[in-house]
């Protein structure tokens, strides 16, 4: 999931969920208009008569699995046997054959460091080792992304379907754009710079794991080829773990987001809003599934944060600029001397630590915003992740009781103005 700032989002990416790359994801109000009626307009297949600025060839996806440095372990098993891979003067030596690039097909799947992948492996020599790419069917890729992004054991069918459509939409949109700019060998990253892909989900023998695998396959099969579509092109649908009750505008959170990436405007997330109200009423985050978070920065933390933000010492003052949903977008920060320096909320989160300041949806700061910070700093907020696009925890709740929403209605809430199209 994220565009400029990869960070955990959802059970795996974490969707949930990002550092900084180059795109973004969407949302809007569940209380009115399209969100309230709940369904996405269906559109026909792509083909003659459909205008698009970017070429679409969604059948095959190229994914960069990572890089290998000579001297470190690389275990590849193809066609039922392990391959011997070493760095050689002329490139890479694989089972005694030296070349700058090796293409390794394996109809039954190929294992890379223990993980199973359905597809063709490509090893390309680099100065220090090799880059590792995989070419696989789009639907196999989507299945792997959904397995990495969600907790399959507890995921609802409509939640799985919504995540599959969002993942397929993102992959189709981003690959089309990159192929137009870089050629057919353009690829997706297998980490949070794009979407987390860890390979084929392999269930154990237990009934629960077998059921989870069957539900995963059913969701991908039920949505096969379906993508979100907007402005005559596929939508690069972003997602994060939890919006905290209100999603945010793509262009505000990710100022460099490319045209056509999902997300203009923000949306009320009814499920997270209900959870936030319950936590507010009880005066504390839920003990089992907290939406709220709190972080206290000590003098040492303030100094480390200030230096990380390029200040002359400890953080002494902050003045945020927030969107309509209460999410900090930019923050004017000051140190001991000199004028304020404006940073993005994501830069502040990175300086504090994303695992501590879990989102930029801040409800309370003590001392108050604009006041001088002399001792420590308390921040209290809601949600996890960047808050743009599909809210994974919200989708989970909306798909289950008592909401019982379909995947189309869920996506209609988070991606207003988009339609569904089969590619």
Explain this structure.
The chain is an alpha+beta fold and 423 residues long. It has three domains: 33-55 and 140-271 and 387-422, no CATH class; 71-127, no CATH class; 292-382, no CATH class. Helices cover 26% and strands 25% of the residues. The chain is built from ten helices and 24 strands. It has helices spanning 33-37, 138-149, 157-182, 207-222, 250-253, 270-282, 299-308, 345-352, 392-399, 407-414; strands at residues 42-43, 60-69, 76-78, 81-82, 85-88, 91-94, 97-99, 101-104, 110-112, 115-117, 120-125, 129-137, 188-189, 226-230, 233-234, 239-240, 292-297, 317-322, 328-334, 341-344, 362-366, 377-382, 390-391, 419-422. The strands form seven sheets. A five-stranded mixed sheet has the order 8-11-12-2-13. The protein is globular and about 65 Å long. Mean pLDDT is 86; it is low at 2-38, 45-56 and 258-263.
Descriptive terms for the model:
423 residues, disordered N terminus, 24 strands, 3 domains, alpha+beta, five-stranded mixed sheet
The global form is globular
Backbone structural class = alpha+beta
The spatial strand order of the largest sheet comes to: 8-11-12-2-13
As a percent range, the share of helical residues equals 25-40%
């Amino acid at each position: 999931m994220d565009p400029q700032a990869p960070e955990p989002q959802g059970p795996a990416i974490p969707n949930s969920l990002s550092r900084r790359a180059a795109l973004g994801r969407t949302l809007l109000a569940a209380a009115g208009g399209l969100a309230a009626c709940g369904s996405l307009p269906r559109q026909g297949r792509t083909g003659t008569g459909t205008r698009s600025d970017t070429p679409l060839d969604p059948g095959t996806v190229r994914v960069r699995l990572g890089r290998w440095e000579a001297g470190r372990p690389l275990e590849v098993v193809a066609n039922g046997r392990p391959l011997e891979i070493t760095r050689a003067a002329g490139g890479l030596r694989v089972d005694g054959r030296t070349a700058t690039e090796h293409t390794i097909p394996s109809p039954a799947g190929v294992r890379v460091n223990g993980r199973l992948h359905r597809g063709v492996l490509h090893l390309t020599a680099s100065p220090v080792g090799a880059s590792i790419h995989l070419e696989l069917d789009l639907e196999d890729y989507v299945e792997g992304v959904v397995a990495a992004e969600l907790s399959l054991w507890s995921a609802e069918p409509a939640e799985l379907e919504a995540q599959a459509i969002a993942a397929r939409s993102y992959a189709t949109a981003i690959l089309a754009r990159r192929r137009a700019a870089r050629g057919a060998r353009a690829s997706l990253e297998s980490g949070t710079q794009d979407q987390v892909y860890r390979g084929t989900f392999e269930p154990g023998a237990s009934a629960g794991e077998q059921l989870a695998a069957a539900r995963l396959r059913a969701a991908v099969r039920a949505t096969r080829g379906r993508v979100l579509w907007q402005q005559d092109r596929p939508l690069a649908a972003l997602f994060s773990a939890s919006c905290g009750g209100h999603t945010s505008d793509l262009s505000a959170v990710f100022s460099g987001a490319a045209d056509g990436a999902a997300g203009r405007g923000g949306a009320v997330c009814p499920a997270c809003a209900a959870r936030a109200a319950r936590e507010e009423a009880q005066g504390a985050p839920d003990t089992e599934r907290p939406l709220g978070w709190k972080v206290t920065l000590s003098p040492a933390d303030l100094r480390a944060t200030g230096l990380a933000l390029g200040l002359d010492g400890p953080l002494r003052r902050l003045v945020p600029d927030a969107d309509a949903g209460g999410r900090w977008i930019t923050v004017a920060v000051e140190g001991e001397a000199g004028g304020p320096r404006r940073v993005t909320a994501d830069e502040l989160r990175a300086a504090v630590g994303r695992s501590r300041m879990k989102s930029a949806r801040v409800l309370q700061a003590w001392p108050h915003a604009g006041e001088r910070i002399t001792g420590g700093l308390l921040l209290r907020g809601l949600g996890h992740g960047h808050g743009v696009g599909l809210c994974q925890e919200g989708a989970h709740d909306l798909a289950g009781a008592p909401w019982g929403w379909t995947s189309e209605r869920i996506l209609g809430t988070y991606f207003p103005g988009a339609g569904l199209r089969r590619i």
